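Practice problem: predict the structure.
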Amino acid sequence: MKSRPATLRSDVTNELATASRKMRTGFDALVRTRGLTLARARALMLLARHPGISQTELAGLLEIENPTVVRLLDGLEKQGLIRRTPAETDRRG
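Answer:
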């Protein structure tokens, strides 16, 4: 039999998990009405908070791999929501 504090912790954890799922579902539905995915919306929010951020830095903040960020940004660029510019230190093309 669980002690009262352990049961309370378990209840609080379950309630937080439920609230988190509901918030995510609601946010996902909201961004879909704007033609976005949750991932693209998160990227846009971070880009707004960190102007000039590199793709590598964005990948770190989103906790995803660089190739995934490239695909995300490709989609946002195709939608006309962002414009990528090369970094001054980037010597490629």
